[in-house]
Design a protein that fits this description.
homotetramer; about 350 residues; alpha/beta; Alpha-Beta Plaits; TIM Barrel; 2 domains; 9-stranded parallel beta sheet; 4-stranded antiparallel beta sheet; elongated
Amino acid sequence: MLIVMEMNATPEQVEGVVQRIEEKGLKAHPIPGAQRTAIGITGNLGVLDRGIFESLPGVIQVIRVSHPFKLVSHEFKPTQTVVRVGGVEIGGRGLVVMAGPCAVESYEQTLRIARAVKAAGGHILRGGAYKPRTSPYSFQGLGVEGLEILARVREEVGMPVVSEATDIDVLDAVAEHSDIVQIGARNMQNYTLLRRAGRCGRPVLLKRGMTATVTELLLSAEYILDQGNPDVILCERGIRTFADHTRNTLDIAAVPEVKRISHLPIIVDPSHASGKRNQILPLSRAAVAVGADGVMVEVHDQPEKALSDANQAIVPDEFETLMEEVRLLASVLERNVPTYAAAV
Amino acid sequence: MLIVMEMNATPEQVEGVVQRIEEKGLKAHPIPGAQRTAIGITGNLGVLDRGIFESLPGVIQVIRVSHPFKLVSHEFKPTQTVVRVGGVEIGGRGLVVMAGPCAVESYEQTLRIARAVKAAGGHILRGGAYKPRTSPYSFQGLGVEGLEILARVREEVGMPVVSEATDIDVLDAVAEHSDIVQIGARNMQNYTLLRRAGRCGRPVLLKRGMTATVTELLLSAEYILDQGNPDVILCERGIRTFADHTRNTLDIAAVPEVKRISHLPIIVDPSHASGKRNQILPLSRAAVAVGADGVMVEVHDQPEKALSDANQAIVPDEFETLMEEVRLLASVLERNVPTYAAAV
Amino acid sequence: MLIVMEMNATPEQVEGVVQRIEEKGLKAHPIPGAQRTAIGITGNLGVLDRGIFESLPGVIQVIRVSHPFKLVSHEFKPTQTVVRVGGVEIGGRGLVVMAGPCAVESYEQTLRIARAVKAAGGHILRGGAYKPRTSPYSFQGLGVEGLEILARVREEVGMPVVSEATDIDVLDAVAEHSDIVQIGARNMQNYTLLRRAGRCGRPVLLKRGMTATVTELLLSAEYILDQGNPDVILCERGIRTFADHTRNTLDIAAVPEVKRISHLPIIVDPSHASGKRNQILPLSRAAVAVGADGVMVEVHDQPEKALSDANQAIVPDEFETLMEEVRLLASVLERNVPTYAAAV
Amino acid sequence: MLIVMEMNATPEQVEGVVQRIEEKGLKAHPIPGAQRTAIGITGNLGVLDRGIFESLPGVIQVIRVSHPFKLVSHEFKPTQTVVRVGGVEIGGRGLVVMAGPCAVESYEQTLRIARAVKAAGGHILRGGAYKPRTSPYSFQGLGVEGLEILARVREEVGMPVVSEATDIDVLDAVAEHSDIVQIGARNMQNYTLLRRAGRCGRPVLLKRGMTATVTELLLSAEYILDQGNPDVILCERGIRTFADHTRNTLDIAAVPEVKRISHLPIIVDPSHASGKRNQILPLSRAAVAVGADGVMVEVHDQPEKALSDANQAIVPDEFETLMEEVRLLASVLERNVPTYAAAV
């Protein structure tokens, strides 16, 4: 960490900062310059809150040199994390494809889509039982009934399922019925929910908030790991920008950045990133090519009757094409798309 | 609502959209054009989810013409909402100033600051007992002990207090000890929390999310009103942009926009918007001048010892200047800064 | 185009809008609704300025339904544009790779890098002679001397070159010495320069502005086509967002969007999009996978001695890997990476 | 400046950076830490390009501690710059109001509006003769005829005029006919134009680009001052964000930030910032309250007939109200709104 002093900072102010640093058991390295003094800090400061220096008299800026997180970093754990769920591996050489309807609407709908996903080679069934909706007047999901449908279809088809826990009240139910608990973008900084997810006994799929930096995404994952749950899968799903041709802007460069600094797997969700059906296949290809560990897409067999977000779902035929393209790309990128004999 | 068809949409596709509109009990108005057909919809569609049309074959775009909310709109309730709390009015001709420490750190600290705020003419004491922090390693607040400190200081000094409920677990405790329940920016789309806040029996201060549009802020308020709680105070606290000279970018134009379409009061929080002490006074002046119903600022008497976000707090002397400036501006803007005899 | 009236608009105001529409030789279709009236417009309105309606009394919103451009659209020209330059094709089945130093620094440097690029299979040499620099104190390029170096190297190595024209004063010189004239991101809305580029007799590489929407990019291309120059290559190079892990945010979804609505070729520049060497290979793969017609990357053989932006250049060894990866991806995506016998 | 080394940087790499620093005549201060080494640099490095260090082996980050500009900074010139034009002062205690039509449409229109502006107490007449338009099919301005109209009206009414130079071809004509040369937002990084404006013999009104940081705005001003022209007036006119309720987002906090670090005057343009007539008065009040040196607004007496951007103009009656509000605010903010006897 580096403290930059104001140009007219007094020697007493510099001394005050040095003292505060030493009070924290750290070492201060003042660098008197032509224009101003800077003070380097060394010692074990991985998790130090820089706010404690920012308000000291004479300080103009505090610059963090190390990452503010620890457990999620490559420096802490050099080997890549591989999450195993119902026989499926996420984060290894094999790519994972999660697919299914935005919302669970009925047993029949979910079963039909799950079979189509499975037949095409998809690995994990996604489906929302609790839907966080911008408007109180939109369809809010079937709730626990939706979870039970998912659990039945899971057994019937033989695929692990992922579903979103929208708050701490429903977390236990989601963890009971699903193989992976999803934390949605709007909840990425719901810290109570993150802590509970860290103790829920299931792998967690953590989606990046629409306005979160990569550092903030990793700090949110740190909350989960800090509670003893090492199985976190990150998900890039688009950020909010001025660009209006897609619903959000897929920040594809987040994938190599996460790979560079963290050992956690990361997948991409082109459905929510774009909100446009015609973008899902090209963005899935881009995700695989850039190095993601998989993709999560919405599939619906009757999008014109879907109860929510129909425009971001592809139909089963398109999903088959997507799987074929993912396989072709994997083949030239030293990865593969596994077929699991008896998942779940 | 207006449905825009693709350029090569078939007559059957147009007919399909018309049928779906009529199934919903609405009236369809096809407009065949030189390049493409559009279909106007009329009828009572205030709360219609446009997703149900977006995926119909041949549809390229669905354009909302009316607002997607109802209870919060001026069209629904033409008179301005005035929230009354412990004798203080928010949303009337009088401006309100909420001030206090970022986090409640101790009884003595809170009492000292509360007295300074009260002496300078501030109306409501703010203070966080539960702190949503980006990093799991930052100070997370005193919790229920902090709430009890706030409640004691409230009696001692005679000021209503506002404090944040970070999740549904702590909502009841916050509602019990505070006069106003704050929902923070990171929770603006935590719909379970919004619904509970709608039944908590206290006015709610709802902060705009860093990435939320004004429409989304009003939809979140709609969740609260929809549960029977009419007493919502909105708060503009900056949005996330590329501009890096302040922590967030204060979207000052959100104030006149909210005033134009909604009857709810709106205040401005320059501390979180800027994250810089030297911005707090000028931004407070701008907030009052643009038409906000008040401001909320952080005050700390020993910022160099504060446990969180010290750089966005002003000291009591600066707060006195702020109050003086707010009074002067109010005097030329047909508003005033009331002195309440016996608040609480 | 659709005109939306205010809720309390009078019949006279509606009539006023209808009259103005008819004055323009268009047809008005009023749609009286429960809450408000909307007025559809049909006729030949491809290039109509909506500003002429926005200020009419009673109008609240004007919604454009058609694209505001014409010449660049697929609807105007259904076949894909293929730009041919010195034997190289851009926009066809073959992918194009443009590579070279950020700035031309000397004859020797440029020649060495050009040979490395050529040897690895790159098609077009890039190099800046005029550098638009944020600071007046940064290296501003060699100017006409740089252009002459490029022209010599072009002959020596047998590769077409692309170089940026930073203003109308240097446009002729750039057009004389280069095969493709580049218009940089900061000049995307320099309309005088765009018009001159439309008459310069060379294909134009038009980079998207950091803050431009896809529609605005296409409108800027329209300026060039409107002057009679059909040979425009678009370039996505990142937009400015809050995300701080790369210099800009590569908006990879812009590529399928441009492909959907326009016939112009589009390439991707991962060097400027990311500003980070370690992102260049993964983003190049993503660009090819998403459907771009090629990539443009910075290559430098002594990045530690480069005079500008060294951190966004890869070394020749990395460029060889990039070419190999692009070839592998092309092979599974029904594209290829041509080898041109005698380009230039 | 501070160089941060990678965690596994070798002693040779650290030494390499130290050498490069010393080659530049500067002093290196290595700070070996627990996790990594940082190297402070001191000496006269105000205008040093950090790119020269970023690509050295082992370097992970280069952090600038000083401002990258010089002439525009308070540290270089502690006194506030006051620009004087035709008797009007900009940047002193008196506020300035610039007003007029978006585009000069005819002599009669310009004269009528100028008289209304003058009568209400406005100081400087604005009007565009050259209009940078997103679409090639929009009205592009009257060109030199517009300049001549402005010059005639200027004499007739007795007000200095400001008009935009859209490129270097028209700069001389604009400088000849106007008192202030405006550089528009889209040209803020047109460096050739900036340099010429630095030698044009007139004060320059430099508008912030939609995507520019405050630092970049000041660097662009530095280009002008560097050519010997000290008379630069900055203008905040909104940045591009996701917020869609106004055309751009007025970054009101840019004003105190510019005041903090620079001696140049800064005004605010609420017309372009919001693109909405109903925002112009409240945003003008906010601008004055936050500390701007004035405002620039669009006024049109027949907005329903305006040839461009009619929705962002107010009518003369509203302008009178605006002037009255500005005067009232100035009276409580230790500023004033001067009346100049015989401007021009």
